[in-house]
């Protein structure tokens, strides 16, 4: 929050998205809007109730960078915990289906601790547009006077927040045509065979490849490394199989009017908040 206030004094709370357990301030740097949602999920109510709030924020944002700071009260081994509970499984499915990413990094400390045990129930979650915005994520060793430890990270800088205008604003998009799908599948299988040394497609078949991949994921010491390798395999297969879709400047730009001012922008946001 101090970061947002330093780069731009305009920091508006979106009251329609905020309540006793959620506060959603909005700030702006250059041409980029940033939402920072601080949330608490009560363990005594269904987690779906709070996931609906996250969904409402995502629907409001529509392409804007979002950083969620959430006390989710859910556990998952994918977040460097020792177990996955029912709430954690539901949370995982939600994040995957919405293409959200957890910024938490592995640490010898846990985000939450009591005399009964420790866990990682505090999450820093990013949407696609905010990937790369956060660096240096860590659990601070400073005393917090709470059962939750202090989480610290750098939220980039004013220049890093400003997205480039033009065709790359929404990331790389591919033109997927029916005739190229078989090429993509063959390319992906070949890449995965290279990751799993000793595999032979003609001899072993794709079913054995699936089984080997499943065993590799289950035995992985670092899930993040496996995810990065699979992501790179998909991107490589896409680049070798599909043409990149060109998005015209006309489609990504908004017309401006000469009489619009920054004061009108502030007033509009206050009315909509």
Q: How would you describe this protein?
A:
The protein has helices at 2-7, 47-61, 86-97, 158-161, 178-195, 201-219, 223-241, 249-252, 262-272; strands at 11-13, 22-23, 25-29, 32-40, 65-71, 101-102, 112-114, 117-119, 122-126, 135-139, 151-154, 174-175, 243-244. With 273 residues, it is an alpha+beta fold. It has 2 domains: 2-161, Endonuclease/exonuclease/phosphatase (Deoxyribonuclease I, Chain A); 174-244, no CATH class. The strands form 4 sheets. Strands 1, 2, 3, 4, 5, 6 and 9 form a 7-stranded mixed sheet that branches. It has a two-stranded antiparallel ribbon with strand order 7-8.
Low-confidence stretches: 1-9, 158-170, 249-257
Main pleated-sheet profile:
7 strands, mixed
Helix/strand-derived category reads alpha+beta
Count of individual helical segments: 9
N-to-C terminal Cα separation, in Å? 18 Å
Nearest-angstrom radius of gyration? 22 Å
What is the CATH superfamily classification of the largest domain?
Endonuclease/exonuclease/phosphatase
CATH arch. level architecture of the largest domain: 4-Layer Sandwich
CATH topology of the largest domain: Deoxyribonuclease I, Chain A
Whole-number tally of structural domains: 2
Quaternary class: single chain
What's the short story on this structure?
With 273 residues, this protein is an alpha+beta fold. It has 2 domains: 2-161, Deoxyribonuclease I, Chain A (4-Layer Sandwich), CATH 3.60.10; 174-244, no CATH class.
């Amino acid at each position: 929050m101090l970061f947002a206030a330093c780069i731009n004094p305009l920091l508006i709370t979106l009251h329609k998205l905020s309540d006793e357990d959620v506060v959603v301030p909005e700030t702006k740097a250059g041409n980029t809007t940033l939402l920072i949602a601080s949330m608490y999920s009560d363990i005594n109510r269904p987690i779906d109730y709070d996931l609906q709030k996250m969904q409402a924020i995502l629907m409001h944002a529509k392409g804007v960078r979002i950083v969620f700071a959430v006390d989710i009260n859910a556990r998952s081994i994918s977040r460097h915990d020792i177990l996955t509970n029912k709430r954690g499984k539901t949370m995982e499915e939600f994040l995957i289906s919405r293409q959200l990413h957890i910024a938490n990094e592995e640490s010898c400390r846990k985000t939450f601790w009591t005399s009964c045990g420790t866990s990682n129930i505090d999450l820093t979650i990013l949407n696609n547009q905010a990937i790369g915005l956060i660096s240096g994520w860590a659990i601070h060793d400073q005393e917090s006077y709470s059962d939750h430890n202090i989480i610290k990270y750098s939220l980039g800088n004013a220049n890093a927040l400003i997205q480039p205008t033009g065709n790359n604003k929404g990331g790389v998009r591919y033109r997927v045509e029916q005739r190229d799908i078989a090429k993509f599948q063959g390319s992906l299988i070949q890449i995965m065979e290279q990751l799993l040394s000793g595999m032979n497609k003609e001899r072993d078949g794709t079913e054995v490849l699936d089984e080997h991949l499943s065993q590799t994921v289950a035995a992985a010491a670092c899930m993040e490394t496996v995810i990065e390798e699979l992501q790179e395999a998909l991107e490589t297969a896409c680049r070798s199989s599909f043409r990149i879709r060109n998005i015209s400047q006309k489609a990504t730009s908004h017309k401006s009017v000469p009489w619009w001012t920054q004061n009108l922008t502030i007033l509009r946001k206050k009315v909509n908040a």
